[in-house]
Specification:
about 65% helix; acetate:proton symporter activity; single chain; mainly alpha; Serine Threonine Protein Phosphatase 5, Tetratricopeptide repeat
């Protein structure tokens, strides 16, 4: 029998608890999620604006559903592992919105769900809540860069006009929401392309703009992280 006291040097290998940190073990997932986000918005905007035939809705929402799960939500979880709060919140929240709306519309299209009355108030409430969340994300994006900020401005506008058009049953506002969705999708492709090329070539490729030019104090040196690459 061993006579070693607890905590003796010979027992150190038995008492060590190793902490595994996966935050640096995965690549930057931002472009992966941003391309899915941009594709979703562009397709939905084109559908709602009438540039995609009504029967094409099942195609659009199928892609939105799959991309929402495999790109936005997975990207959000990856951002969470990388300890990037902004990216985690943005991708998981917007991904959940996209998945929910896609599932709802697919259930309606296939006749799985039958509506027996108006749902304008429910749709208005959903868009209003997500308009608030998008506004908070837009405010936080001020700490990133101009391109990301403008992209979230578009998200806020499409959510606000979506809520207003549903509440007022106004076709003009509905069309405005469709165009805000298209333009936000296009601007999202720009941000996604910049993130992807910047990560691939390890240097900025597309200009993203910097809010430090509007500040009187020198801008702090940005930390190289997933969020930094996400925002340019």
């Amino acid at each position: 029998m061993s006579n070693k006291a607890n905590g003796a040097p010979g027992d150190e290998h038995e008492n060590i608890v190793r902490k595994v940190d996966f935050s640096d073990s995965i690549g930057n997932p931002s472009a992966f999620g941003l391309f899915g986000f941009s594709m979703q918005l562009t397709l939905i905007g084109l559908l709602n604006a009438g540039y995609i035939e009504p029967d094409g809705a099942v195609v659009v929402y199928s892609f939105v559903l799959v991309a929402g799960i495999l790109q936005l939500i997975v990207c959000g979880l990856a951002m969470l592992i990388k300890k990037e709060l902004f990216g985690a919140v943005a991708f998981t929240v917007l991904g959940s919105f996209a998945v929910s709306m896609a599932m709802f519309n697919l259930l309606l299209i296939t006749g799985t769900v039958q509506l027996h009355g108006p749902i304008d108030n429910a749709i208005t409430a959903v868009f209003a809540i997500y308009a608030y969340i998008a506004f908070i994300l837009m405010v936080a994006a001020v700490k990133m860069n101009i391109a990301a900020f403008l992209n979230f401005v578009g998200v806020v506008l499409l959510m606000v006009t979506g809520a207003a058009s549903s509440h007022l049953n106004n076709q003009s506002l509905s069309m405005a929401s469709s165009w805000f969705t298209i333009l936000t999708g296009i601007s999202g492709f720009y941000v996604a392309t910049g993130a992807f090329l910047g990560e691939t070539f390890r240097r900025p490729i597309l200009p993203m703009g910097d809010f430090s030019m509007f500040r009187k104090v020198p801008a702090m040196k940005r930390r190289e992280s997933g969020a930094t690459e996400f925002m340019g």
